[in-house]
Amino acid sequence: EALKPIQWLIGTWESISAKGSFPTIKDFTYKEVIKFESLGQPLLNYESRSKNPVSGAPMHLESGFLRIKPGTNEIAFMVAHNFGLVVLEEGTGDEQGLQLVSKSINRMSFGKDPAVKTVQKRYRLNADGTLQIETDMETSNTPLTNHLVAMYKRSE
Predict the structure, then answer these.
(1) How do the pLDDT tens digits run along the chain, 156 residues long?
(2) C-alpha neighbours within 13 Å on the C-beta side of residue 144
(3) Cβ neighbours of residue 82 under 8 Å, at least 6 residues apart?
(4) Which positions ≥6 away from 46 have C-beta within 8 Å?
(5) 72 forms bridges with which residues in the sheet?
(6) Which of 47, 74, 85, 103 could join 69 via S-S bond, C-beta 3.0 to 4.6 A?
């Protein structure tokens, strides 16, 4: 019952289209599979794997938990990234989407500059059943800017 506002996320989602851009890098595309799994607690287990759409080489891996405060629409998303970043985002979630803003970002001591300073994410469940995720990022060199836009279809 506690998961009701976010239970629509449960399952495996495969990208239909996924592109990234940022002022300091060349635009790129990627393929991604994300999975949200219920563990019987007021949280979902989360996993993401992205790869190069041409070579199939792994690009970005994420693992974490999406937790909801029971009886509310308050959510916390705790995610570890394979390049040494750990992000805690908080916000709200309902049957149509999620709105998240980073509350803390930590990185390993030998992480590459520029440092990520802020992350904002918007998840939207579209009328056709597709999921759109937009990610904005601020670094030590660049103000808050859209970084990723991806559309997914449910595969399981």
Answers:
(1) 889 999 999 999 999 999 999 999 999 999 999 999 998 889 999 999 999 999 999 999 999 999 999 999 999 999 999 999 999 999 999 999 999 999 999 999 999 899 999 999 999 999 999 999 999 999 999 999 999 999 999 997
(2) 9
(3) 60, 61, 62
(4) 34, 35, 36, 37, 62, 63, 64, 65, 66, 77, 79
(5) none
(6) 74
Interatomic CA distance for residues 8 and 13, integer angstroms: 11
User: What is the number of domains present in the chain?
Assistant: 1
Which CATH number goes with the domain that contains 64? Answer: 2.40.128.20
Predicted TM-score (pTM) of this structure: 0.95
| CA-based end-to-end distance of the chain | 22
Q: How far apart are CA 93 and CA 5, in angstroms?
A: 6
- Closest C-alpha to 127, from 85, 97, 93: 97
